[in-house]
């Protein structure tokens, strides 16, 4: 379901189509919790997971509602709006993952909240070069305005200090949310190239990430 919702925005040309697909999943979740899932493979598996793990309906609805708001295709007004989006999507998915694992603990939820927000911010940063190729910028407007940077500056791939300062401020907010998780590796690499988000090294996927996560899992406790 997560992948279906995530792909809706990039696969549509009209907002109305996206709204219809979001409504399908909203109705599907309602039917699943009424023990009457639609005849759709993903919905069927989701129904089984809900029954098996007693998953919380609220988290599914938050993900759908927030993804629907995101169909407007506009930049975030401020960093708080980006964090809210991350909390209601990335963090909500982590809460459901914890429930699937049988973990219902306030400390785990607290960690998931921070990790989800950091992940949402980092995802926004990592996607910026791709979005720029499509003439779109979603970075928080207040931080861009603070440094006198326009959307056109990003679309043109400018790398002046004030552009890097925007990335620095946003990355710093992600760093606040995390101390010992793998996303910190991307932020570290960003610092190495002086917050030049268009640097080729930042476009590569780390093949060592699974091993990195495994090692960190042995060292980190929440």
Can you give a write-up of this model?
- There is one protein chain.
- By secondary structure, this protein is mostly helical.
- The protein is 69% helix and 0% strand.
- The protein has helices at 2-11, 15-33, 41-53, 57-69, 79-100, 106-133, 141-146, 151-155, 161-177, 183-192, 209-219.
- Helix 2 (15-33) packs antiparallel against helix 4.
- The longest helix is centred in the middle third of the chain and has 28 residues, at 106-133.
- The radius of gyration is 19 Å and the shape is globular.
- The model is unreliable at 207-215 and 217-222 (pLDDT under 50).
List keywords for this structure.
222 residues; mainly alpha; disordered C terminus
Q: SSE layout and pairings?
A:
Blueprint: H1 2-11, H2 15-33, H3 41-53, H4 57-69, H5 79-100, H6 106-133, H7 141-146, H8 151-155, H9 161-177, H10 183-192, H11 209-219
Helix pairs in contact: 2-3, 2-4, 4-5, 5-6, 6-9
Spell out the helices and strands N to C.
HHHHHHHHHHH
The amount of helix comes to: 55-70%
- Main sheet attributes: strand count, strand direction, barrel closure: none
Strands, count: 0
Question: Mean pLDDT, as a whole number?
Answer: 85
Gap between N and C termini, in Å?
Answer: 28 Å
DSSP strand content: under 5%
Radius of gyration: 19 Å
Shape by Cα distribution: globular
- Poorly predicted runs are 207-215, 217-222
Question: What structural class should be given to the helix and strand makeup?
Answer: mainly alpha
